[in-house]
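Dear Dr. L.,

I hope this message finds you well. Following up on our conversation about the binding site, I have prepared a predicted three-dimensional model of the protein together with NDP. For your records, I am including the exact sequence and ligand specification that went into the calculation, followed by the structure tokens. Please feel free to forward this to your student if that is useful.
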Amino acid sequence: MSDKTKRLTTTAGAPIADNQNSLTSGPRGPILMQDYQLLEKLAHQNRERIPERVVHAKGWGAHGTLTVTNDITKYTKAKVFSEVGKQTPMICRFSTVAGEAGAADNERDVRGFALKFYTEEGNWDLVGNNTPVFFIRDPYKFPDFIHTQKRHPRTNLRSATAMWDYWSQSPEALHQVTILMSDRGCPRSPTEMNGYGSHTFSMINDDGARVWVKFHFKTQQGHTFYTDAESGEKIGQTREGFQEDLFGRIEAGKFPKWDVKIQVMTEDEAEKTPYNPFDLTKVWPHGDFPLIDVGVLELNRNADNYFAEIENCAYSPSNIVPGVGFSPDKVLQARIFSYADAHRYRLGTHYEQLPVNQPKCPMNHYHKDGTMNHMGQLTGATDAYYEPNTMGGVVQSSDVADPPLGICGDVDRFNHRDGNDDYGQPRALHDLMNADQQGRLYANTARSMVGVPDAIIDLALSHYAKISQQYADGIRSALKGMG
Ligand code: NDP
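The resulting structure of the complex is given below.
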């Protein structure tokens, strides 16, 4: 063989003479222990799978660009928004929440909408959904809620009873359940749905002033949906509907786009809203906090290797950059810990060194050693392996500190349902749907209740009646129609 660059080798680089036949004692004989090339192949195959994500295991993604079209520098000093026309490379991963890595794409479920922007001051991740709210407002309930979406320990089947048992005792979930059971709960394509940062975040400008913000990504492709019957038919044809659609569109040069917008609330306004603006089960009504144009998000490049670029892509709400900050949202606070922790378990301590996760700007820190540390020391000087030091190591930048945030109050486990209206916002959503949309909402909800004990359904419907008697009656009558 003349072209040595195309030689098949072992992982240590030695050329392999035969990749078809094992090394045996005679043509019928047993295999020799020294057939290291066979052992290496089998050992690697055993290790091809990594733990799938506990939630959002099935995903589809692509590379793209954020282009700023409107000046928002009065709100933020973030470099990503520093001038109109600025472009920042990014990578997006969509997902379903409940299904495993091999689940069918077109099932009714909330969709993850995770974005990583490679900014010049570090990676900024917005790890949101295609819904502006979520099922819980206290992260203490997240593991319980997710258990209801996963398999029953004995039957190993998903359980409608578990879902409705939980929801019927958690009225704050019904806003999100209304979206899930509406047309928006079963989009035809990841490109034909909106994305939302969902949490309240903050923006900080050059003067050190803070505002609260919500992020919105409005699809330019228009909203589509499958009915339950249509999605069943689609899944019968293919389990990979979203992957085929997203990959195919981008391969064909039909790049999907979203208009990027924010809502802004001042710290003073946040003291006066009738709802807690940091409650993940609530939206900020557009009439009170209008959408402000920011830019356009475009997905324009498929990954060359799905595993390396999409499965290995590790999003975490802890990845913020100067000019964008957190908020007191309790669920956001918990996700700041749990997402990075999940990646350390799933991908390893140095998951941020994987090419898709590496920032595209200088990165310096004093974390040391650990499994698979191939980077050596990133402190700026050989003798600086601790901090502070006089050895020329990297130092903190006090100019990027957030302004102080006033928080005070008694330490307690406050009942998060006290004084909270869990019915008004789902009512507003129910009421903006036309009769056909409401009919599908009632039928989808009723279908998801089939087989659930009557007492649980009655309790759930007592909450629906507080949203709207018409809504509760609609589900009840759809249930009767299903026998
Ligand atoms: P608006 O009439 O200004 O906004 C209603 C929003 O509802 C629109 O953004 C629309 O999205 C969206 N929408 C339409 N159908 C559905 C559906 N089946 N599931 C989810 N969203 C849908 O009213 P308000 O801002 O006062 O909000 C009223 C209700 O609308 C809220 O209680 C909330 O349930 C829902 N909503 C509000 C959002 C917000 O940030 N204010 C965001 C999304 C939903 P589109 O423009 O794409 O058609």
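In brief: The CA atoms of residues 143 and 149 lie 10 Å apart.

With kind regards,
A. P.
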